[in-house]
Amino acid sequence: MLLPLCWLKFLLLGDHIVPVLVFRDKTDTKYVKVLSDFPALPAVTACAHLQWDTRTQEIATIFSYAVPAFINEFQLRGFVDEEGFVRFALIVHGHHSPYLPVFRADGQWHHFCVTWQQENGTWAIYADGKRRASASGLCAVGPSAPQAIYGQGTFIIGQDQDSLGGTFREKESFSGNITDLHIWQKVLGAEQIEKVRSCWVVEQDLVFGWSSNALEVESTVMTTPLVIEDPCNDPSNDSCSDVLG
Ligand SMILES: *[C@@H]1O[C@H](CO)[C@@H](O)[C@H](O)[C@H]1NC(C)=O
Ligand SMILES: *[C@@H]1O[C@H](CO)[C@@H](O)[C@H](O)[C@H]1NC(C)=O
Ligand SMILES: *[C@@H]1O[C@H](CO)[C@@H](O)[C@H](O)[C@H]1NC(C)=O
Asked: Which atom of ligand 1 lies nearest, measured to the CA of 176?
């Protein structure tokens, strides 16, 4: 019998099904906080699966990471453009990349990864395993060399923080579903990103691995363990490779 890889992962971990966070509407209250200790990050990769709510064209904050010295230390935002694409922009130390199209606003699950490194301020955005955007110079301007992303900050899923850990605004909040968020303190290459997309956990340099135990979930955010809702857990999904062949 063949077991899809994503199922095997859960069997091996003796785990149940990793929940999907459901942000049903834009609000100034729904948030999920990552309860990890963040080191300083000279390089970073953040990946997740998400389902974009196509009902709104306003800018949504997928995640925001804030430190006392810089509220907009590290952020990912997006919106649906007029051609029907979701566009993402990365923010580091308050510097904003352009909004670039990453995937179709089709209501389906999509996988994304964003990477940034202190060296040259080089960044990239991947969607469904493909690199959609990359450039240098994000926050590498000014007389001083770019800084690492500061450690010990507050990482919030679904809201922009206008103060450390709070002051959320409905207009900038995320609406949709998100799961399998992982954060590494290095830049993952295309090959590793493909592994992550098909539900392998790349353990090396992992700062945060998706686990409901390490999340503070505000009470009106729903978590659904429905198997079919988790793209990494869909038994009919052929992109989850067979490993017991
Ligand atoms: C998110 O998941 C919920 C519950 O399964 C579903 O009803 C909703 O349509 C999904 N939202 C989006 C934006 O796809
Ligand atoms: C940074 O820029 C220098 C000079 O242009 C280049 O030689 C180097 O390869 C770049 N490093 C990265 C990681 O892109
Ligand atoms: C199948 O899983 C991949 C990740 O392994 C995901 O990107 C894709 O959206 C899933 N497809 C469906 C139809 O759920």
From this structure: 13
